[in-house]
Design brief:
Helices cover about 25% and strands about 20% of the residues. It has about 210 residues and is α+β, with helices and mostly antiparallel strands.
Length: about 210
């Protein structure tokens, strides 16, 4: 007489399978969250208001000769032969040293001077005005608040609505186009370029 054996399922193997699947899910979710956190950290580091300003020795290594001369020695670059005097793209201009937002393309105009000119800063608190009596002239110097870098000068012969002309050296600035704002950590400024339809506003030629 043949004996019949019943094969019972091994509950332990099922538990092992479920624990394995759960562990895999946890690893995948953890990897996604870690990658997101690292991306956010990199974006925050690109524009960090608490980041200390490098020493002049470090800046001499990091900046070009013209950038250092303008920002740290109050120099003036050659008109009509600089990066942004004729730039008509939409975006913002930030401090070359700290990344602090300084001016926006919507406030840029053609002053005919050969230097980037703006009717106002992107935020009044980001620039500092100081009396400048050098070269036998009385002028108002404009400096970056965080970096204390020389940017240029402000004059009262600008167009409406402010009547001011912020004449700035390209060497003190870095331009970030609209499509790079979020990537560079300046996503909060995208709203400046959004018309009612929600489409990015096209740059107007000066």
């Amino acid at each position: 007489m043949k004996s019949t054996y019943l094969i019972r399922p091994h509950h332990g193997s099922h538990k092992t399978l479920w624990f394995g699947l759960l562990g895999t899910i946890i690893v995948i979710v953890g990897s996604i969250l870690l990658a997101y956190a690292q991306t956010q950290k990199k974006e925050a580091e690109k524009m960090n208001p608490t980041k200390p300003v490098p020493s002049n020795t470090d800046l001499q290594r990091q900046l070009s000769k013209d950038q250092y001369h303008v920002t740290r020695e109050c120099g003036t670059e050659t008109p009509f032969h600089n990066a942004y005097w004729d730039n008509h793209k939409a975006g913002i201009y930030v401090d070359i040293i700290t990344g602090e937002p300084l001016f926006g393309s919507l406030d840029k105009f053609d002053s005919g001077t050969g230097w980037p000119s703006f009717t106002k800063p992107i935020s009044p608190g980001n620039v500092v005005e100081k009396r400048d009596s050098t070269h036998g002239m009385e002028r108002t110097e404009v400096r970056g608040k965080m970096s204390d870098s020389h940017l240029g000068h402000v004059f009262d012969d600008g167009p409406a609505p402010t009547g001011e002309r912020f004449c700035v050296n390209s060497a003190a600035l870095r331009f970030i186009p609209v499509d790079k704002l979020k990537e560079e950590g300046y996503g909060q400024y995208l709203s400046l370029f959004q018309p009612p339809q929600g489409q990015p506003q096209q740059a107007q030629r000066d």
